[in-house]
Amino acid sequence: MKTNIIRLVMLVFTAFTMLTVTAKPKDRVVVAYVCSWTDLRLPDPTLMTHINYAFGHVNKTFNGVDIQNPPFLEKVVALKKKNPALKINLSIGGWTSGNFSEMAATQANRTAFARDCRRIVDKYGLDGIDIDWEYPTSNEAGISASPDDTKNFTLLMRDLRKALGNKKLLTIATIQDALYIDFRACVKYLDFVNIMGYDQSNPPMHHTTIHRSPLSGHISLEEGIDAHIKNGVPPEKLTLGMPLYGRGDHSNKILDKFMKTGFTDGRYVERWDSIGEVPYLVDKTGKLVWGFDNPRSWAAKCQYIIDRGLLGGMYWETTEDNAQRDGQMTIYESLLKNNKGTIPLKHVLVLTSGKSSVEASQVVDELKQLGMKRHFDVTVLADDAAYTPEYFDRFHLIYQLNADLSKLGNEARKEFETYVDASHGSFFAAKDTAVKGWDWYNTFSQDLRVCPLNQKYWSNTAKMGRNLFCIGNNAKAEEVVELLNL
Fold this sequence. Notes:
Layout: H1 2-23, E1 29-35, E2 50-58, E3 65-67, H2 70-77, E4 87-93, H3 100-104, H4 107-124, E5 128-132, H5 149-164, E6 169-175, H6 183-186, E7 192-196, H7 221-230, E8 238-243, E9 247-248, H8 253-256, H9 258-261, E10 269-273, E11 278-282, E12 288-291, H10 295-308, E13 312-316, H11 326-337, E14 346-352, H12 358-374, E15 376-382, E16 397-400, H13 410-421, E17 426-429, H14 439-446, H15 456-464, E18 469-471, H16 477-484
Parallel strand pairs: 1-2, 1-13, 2-4, 4-5, 5-6, 6-7, 7-8, 8-13, 14-15, 14-16, 16-17, 17-18
Antiparallel strand pairs: 2-3, 9-12, 10-11, 11-12
Helix pairs in contact: 4-5, 10-11
């Protein structure tokens, strides 16, 4: 009996150990697309394992590659200095990117193209190539196509692998349906497959639900993963793509900026699809007008990636994220740091005079207590402290307690102005005070209403979205936090 118990304990321990090992693969990846036309802001290279630089294109003679914005590619490659383990690929293709069909149709063109890919990899110090042909045999994107494209795609993968060798990466981006490609024939040449888990429908349907729900378009993420596995791609070679952007009427300026500002002008209400596990905005009739992701749904998708045993996640694209990088932080913390779906903390910056006072200490302590309950942290910055570039953008709320803002240098002032003008976050001033020598701030503060938080204006403001710019004399920290839904 004792021997049997020992054996049982050993079996349970072994099973638990195996689960622990397989639950967090050391090779899990997070792939970030960085676009050639977004060269004003480089990503934080510590938040991902791979970057796909978009885009290169098949040239007009079908035997080589043209790169968009090569100087920016060089800057992206330089990010390896901050993260030596970072892998950087050139992504070739994209929606409406043509010449694939002609290039892949002949052995001579495929060989020349593959050799040019290898030349580019060596020239720029890249780690591999990502092929984003949208899509073989389809002319939906206005590109040429042939019934032979699927067969030729496999031959192209073979020739690329031969030219790149086994030490360089070869990946592809695919549509959720797993159509157009013979995966069983070509997966042996690939390191992994990036499923583009977005853009599958337009409002009033949601474009990126995890599970099928009444709001799903023609396919859900779950169905897309199943389709790839059914067609021969093992889970450990799949990454699930997530959008950092919303889908709807981009000509509507409020909706178009919503992902960065959270501002709805009181016209739309945010709701949650409990089946599809995604948020969305509805108009006054209850109709879905904007489908998007937020930290809650990104975390749910990451948990689904873990539960399904996939290689990792992918997202399009870094500059679609808000100033605090909520999407990238959620995916990083969930897949690379904690090995479970994780909603990151929000961040509050309190500006103080640096002089000790009972009143200021009470407000800071109250905010910290609230933060433990409502999932945000608090950083205190004295007005005479040195300013770090892009510092304000780290915070969802800047709480001006009693700092002398005239002490802010020119760089800090300019970045604060951008923070407010572009709605990068929320600003609350505890008191209405002018700032000597800062005309912009004085004009800005004159436009704010002084309100004690017990007027209707505040509840109306709350309906507008996450952003708030206001002055509230005698306001309690809890009231501000409640209003902003931190």
